[in-house]
Amino acid sequence: MTKLRVGVLGLGSMGRHHVRNVRENDDVDLVAIADPNGDRFEVAQGMEVLSGVDEMIDAGINAAIVAVPTVYHHEAALKLAQAGVHTMVEKPLAASLEQGTEVVEAFEEAGLVGAVGYVERCNPALLEMRRLLSENFLGEIYQISTRRQSPFPARISDVGVVKDLATHDVDLTAWVAGSPYKSVYAQTSYRSGREFEDMVTASARLENGVLVSHLVNWLTPFKDRMTIVTGERGALVADTAMSDLTFYENGKFPLEWEQIAAFRGVSEGVVTRFALIKREPLRVEHEHFFDAIQNGGSEHVSMREGLQTMRVVEAVLRSAESGEAVQL
């Protein structure tokens, strides 16, 4: 099989890791890297740093990874589609729903693989969580709650916390539950003096009736990445910062302490922490993207899925602005 000729556009905080993973993949060739701001993380290792997407296309690539700021996704993706280059765009797909729609249509009309870099889908804890849920491990699912909190990343200046961070939780929630969003209500705040929101709380309902809550901000002095799924048999808790997955089982024996038994809906049971093979999620994401190109695989996050996530994210912002729930 002929190796894919891969180019990486953007050599910043995410782009440098894309370059490293492409370079370490023996099944593809890294033939072009580009960034108009140069190579501040010194990842070139002797390669010429091109000035932009046009030069990268001229280098003869047939697959690309776009890791530039969100506001530049639309222009770069359309040029790559026109050039017949399979492309993975870092999340979110584009800066607006209109731009995202244009990108999706361009790649579908060209018959190209278009992917979005929702790397959390490749986190070992969430991969195992989804597998267990697909096998009815928890029985009926009642609720999914996520927390994604951390200090402000100075590299982000073109979007707020909803499009940069909460978009991960929207995508992974619909994915692990196997159901799209039906409605959402959200509130945001602007506490740090920047143009965009830095805190959001959102509650939602999925089409399958599962209740959802998201707590996301850039104002917490520690990193918190949790996804909790509660169901009939207990709760699965994924700490995606550490790639740990724990099962809290409902107790099988009635509590003898009457006051506590009356307060709790279930009793406490066995706690199990799963032993997982922990591979770098970004490497797994690359494998899914390249497999889709070479073998017709379907494990990547398609641009069409990325567009659906954008619809929910836009609804979150509309709800926060209007103060009312938004139906999807």
What is the secondary structure topology, with strand pairs?
Elements (H helix, E strand, L loop, with lengths): L3 E6 L5 H9 L4 E7 L14 E2 L2 H6 L4 E4 L6 H10 L3 E5 L6 H14 L3 E4 L6 H11 L6 E11 L9 H17 L3 E9 L9 E8 L4 E7 L1 E13 L2 E6 L4 E7 L7 H6 L4 E6 L7 H15 L7 H20 L3 E2 L1
Parallel strand pairs: 1-2, 1-4, 2-3, 4-5, 5-6, 7-10
Antiparallel strand pairs: 7-11, 8-9, 8-15, 9-10, 11-12, 12-13, 13-14
Helix pairs in contact: 3-4, 4-9, 5-6, 6-9
InterPro entries: Gfo/Idh/MocA-like_OxRdtase_N, Gfo/Idh/MocA_Oxidoreductases, GFO_IDH_MocA-like_dom, NAD(P)-bd_dom_sf
Pfam family, one: GFO_IDH_MocA
Protein name: Gfo/Idh/MocA family oxidoreductase
The helix-strand sequence is EHEEHEHEHEHEHEEEEEEHEHHE
Task: Quickly give the structural class.
Answer: alpha/beta
Count of individual beta strands: 15
Q: Outline the low-pLDDT stretches.
A: none
Shape assignment = globular
Percent range for β-strand residues: 25-35%
Domain Gfo/Idh/MocA-like oxidoreductase N-terminal: 4-118
Pfam family, one: GFO_IDH_MocA_C3
Protein name: Gfo/Idh/MocA family oxidoreductase
Organism: Gleimia hominis
Description of the molecule:
It is built from nine helices and 15 strands. It has helices at 15-23, 53-58, 73-82, 97-110, 124-134, 161-177, 258-263, 281-295, 303-322, and strands spanning 4-9, 28-34, 49-50, 63-66, 86-90, 114-117, 141-151, 181-189, 199-206, 211-217, 219-231, 234-239, 244-250, 268-273, 326-327. Strands 14-13-12-11-7-10-9-8-15 form a nine-stranded mixed β-sheet. Strands 3-2-1-4-5-6 form a six-stranded parallel β-sheet, sandwiched between helices. Helix 4 (97-110) packs antiparallel against helix 9 and helix 6 (161-177) packs across helix 9. The chain starts with a strand and ends with a strand. The model has no long low-confidence stretch (mean pLDDT 94). Residues 127-236 form the GFO/IDH/MocA-like oxidoreductase domain. This is Gfo/Idh/MocA family oxidoreductase. Residues 4-118 form the Gfo/Idh/MocA-like oxidoreductase N-terminal domain. InterPro entries: Gfo/Idh/MocA-like_OxRdtase_N, Gfo/Idh/MocA_Oxidoreductases, GFO_IDH_MocA-like_dom, NAD(P)-bd_dom_sf.
